[in-house]
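Chapter review: from sequence to fold.
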Amino acid sequence: MTVIDLPNQNRSGQIKYQTMKDGAKLRTASWTSDNNSKAIVILVHGHREFMEKYNEFSADLLGRNFALYALDNRGQGLSDRLLPDRVKSHADRFDIFSEDLNEFISKTVMADPRANELPIYLIAHSMGGHISLRYLHDFPGVISKAVLMSPMIDFNLGISVVKSLLKKTIRLANFIGFKETLAFGQKAFQSKNSRLIKQKLLTHDKRRYASEAELIQSNPDLYVGGATFGWLKAALDSMREMHQPGYLDDISIPLLVILPEKDKVVDSQASRDLLSGYDNIRITTIKGARHEIYREHDEYRDHLWQEIDAFLTVQ
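The token string follows.
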């Protein structure tokens, strides 16, 4: 077991590996509840992410007197990868991620000494938002509220004709045996120029973006490269399931969906189309923000926290 410290926090978290029912080992972190805790928060990361990337955001949560739990999703961070080539982001099915989240919550979060008396919240980003919706649908009854930042409801692939063609190409590539091959435009390692382009897609804040490269430089095993055709097909299959009529009717808890106005990674309009019209779902947009709102400039992060604090009634 390893201790993890966050900036400006007196509380130390514990990092340990949880062995899942299929034998995979997932890296988890926990800051258990104490007498001052208002609630328990479970943080669910996006694609190619790891818990250190959320150090500032996690410190903000702890500063609000939340107990906090997080995990590196299977295939990411220091959790077990799904292919021998660890830089390939791969999955055969997306159910595995929501099943992992359920096992983590059931065995680790619910072992918190105050789990039966405190409300339990999910806060998720991008792919984590997708995983969380799958979890909330398949495993109801544990979570009281959920916050979904930039949820991955659909990819931002351009106009409908191009999007349709790309999705057909992804399925064809899997059919003819390329599911473990990096998809078009995906790279195992990124050049300095490609990282600059990526930064402009994700956040305006160059300093916060640069911290990710510093973390990976200090521990290269954190790095995950591009997605395989198999990962993309698994994501598309899961998106299709989520769009089935009545799917969201089974999720009755309050949801706050936070969309960045300038998201070029996932399709915000798809989120609005799927999630609008439900009394328990509130959708808000942060003007000017890019995909990774949690590590944006302070003006966008301040707006983000205003929305989250109001939703979770933090005083």
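Two observations follow directly from the output. The chain has one domain: 2-311. Residues 2-311 form a domain with the Rossmann fold fold (CATH 3.40.50.1820).
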